[in-house]
Amino acid sequence: MMKVVGKVFEPDPDGNDASDGHIGRRLREIRKLAGLTQAQVAKRLDIRQSAITGMERRKDMHVSTLRDYLSAMGATLRLHAHFDDAGALINNLREADFGFEQIDENQLLLPIFGEAPLPPHRDVVFSIKPEYSRKIVSGEKTIELRRRFPMSVPPGTTALIYETSPTRALSGIAEIGDVHRRSPEEIWKSFGDQACIARKDFDAYFTGVDRAFAIELRHARSLPRPLLLSELRDRFSFEPPQSFLYATPKMREALLYERAKIPN
């Protein structure tokens, strides 16, 4: 018997079922493609078969019900909001507390339900004080601390280092290793020395939070030349983040030349 395993289903705005709005009919088709009967799905959900029949007759339903139905087939529900001509909204969402995927300069995809995986080659830009950024590129500081950071960032992701005032320039590059999410006290005990921060400054930064993030940085080095904020604004419409952001596709492409000149 065929079974859908690990499949991710996304609403298709161009499909017939999306246009007529009949979610239940679409679920019935997916169930049949997975080779499952109503009775089998009902058993996995520990409900009556008549409840499955009712679901498949509905034109709409709660997201939680839709998630459970698909989960019974080994599938994952993911909902996105796709914005066209969203240049202004992109600028407002570049701070990465809310994860999003930028398709191009004027389109973005926001995850509504289910975490969207970080797209490959998505560089992260950190805002870091000069005294800390210099310790990073010298190899003395190998841990960057954050109050928030996405756990979905994979090892090997490029970290671009933006030095804050008075430098105000993109000055360094590193590679992200593992991301650790623990209590502030656990982070201090495990990574305090590698973070190169005084305990009083550490405590002040993490005041009021019960979880802290320690981001491993490796292979750090300086860019061949710093890219000043004025240039970053002119070329990429870049505005420094308070914490971090994802580099835009245009910015990542333009930086390939700078990064190619950096010895490994």
From TrEMBL:
Source species, domain of life: Bacteria
CDD domains per the UniProt record, alphabetical: HTH_XRE
Annotated Gene3D superfamilies: Hypothetical protein, lambda repressor-like DNA-binding domains
Coiled-coil regions listed in the entry: none
A GO term, aspect molecular function: DNA binding
Domain HTH cro/C1-type: residue ranges: 27-80
PROSITE patterns: HTH_CROC1
Protein name: Helix-turn-helix domain-containing protein
Lineage: Bacteria, Pseudomonadati, Pseudomonadota, Alphaproteobacteria, Sphingomonadales
